[in-house]
Amino acid sequence: MDNNAAKPLVTVLGASGLVGTAITRELASRPIRLRLVGRRPTVVPPDARAEIEVRTLDLAVPGAVAEAIAGADAIVHLVAHISGESTWRVSSDDPIAERVNLGLVHDLVEAVRAERPDRPPVVLLAGSMSQAGRSSTARIDGSEPDRPLTTYDRQKLDAELAIQAATDEGLIRGATLRLATLYTQGTDSPALDRGVVCAMMRKALADQPLTMWHDGTVKRDLVCVDDVARAFLAALDQPDATTGRSWLVGTGQATSIADLFTIISKVVAANTGRAPVPVTSVRPAEHSMPTDLLDFVLDPTAFQDATNWAPQVSLLEGLDQLAAAMVAQTASSPA
Length: 335
Prior knowledge:
The protein has helices at 18-27, 64-69, 95-115, 151-169, 196-205, 225-237, 239-242, 257-272, 301-307, 315-332, and strands at residues 9-13, 33-38, 51-56, 74-77, 122-128, 173-179, 181-183, 210-212, 219-220, 222-224, 246-249, 255-256, 279-281.
């Protein structure tokens, strides 16, 4: 972010979610003004240096986005439609999902157009590496054409294109961070994490087998949300280097689902003193998606070169920390 005499205002849309909570924790240590917007209560770090304003808003209400971003020097857009246990299983005829995943970006652009600030605000959108669709290479590097396979990925790609168009117009200084598969290491409440890692960790803690929808050879790039939060700050700090394109953010490491589930079983066993739960293969569920059976591993080299960001949390370290946090949380909960 640019150094101005006045403290810059950063607005985080979706501040109460997993990524938003982690980004808030990082931004709160800075001498800035920080506006946190979410539908649920947002966690405010107790030792914050930032001047923090919390707003509880339903951004899908007309005018809410304009209210939320008014006067902002930078906007971090993390809002996604959540249905059940995940964000990506979206029906093609779900108007609420389209409104949230795409419509709010259009609202943001139009709000900036109406406000016409002296300097275009920095806007960072959270995207997904799965927007690329089926890749012909072992790692997605950003050079492949986007062929999204799911409604969620199509909506996220359309949102990214809207950010790009507004940047080309000079309204904003926008970029998208396409994220690898996220997980928490328990720095913040694991209850915020609706992804596969926490889901399997909860099953292992309940002494239930971990079930794969295939033979376990499908590979994923798994990145800790704390590293992702640092990536967003790196992009905010260097808008001249990051504006005008999408960036792949992950570890670049391929982990098979079989290996992931086996590690989860072992770290839970190590933290509970119980025997590891079995890892088994089952038929895909009826609500499975085409992307569930594809490898998604990315090459984050371009983003690393542009910002000097690099992931710091190894998968084994992160999973062990998460297991310890979840065991401690269970032990402290009332019987």
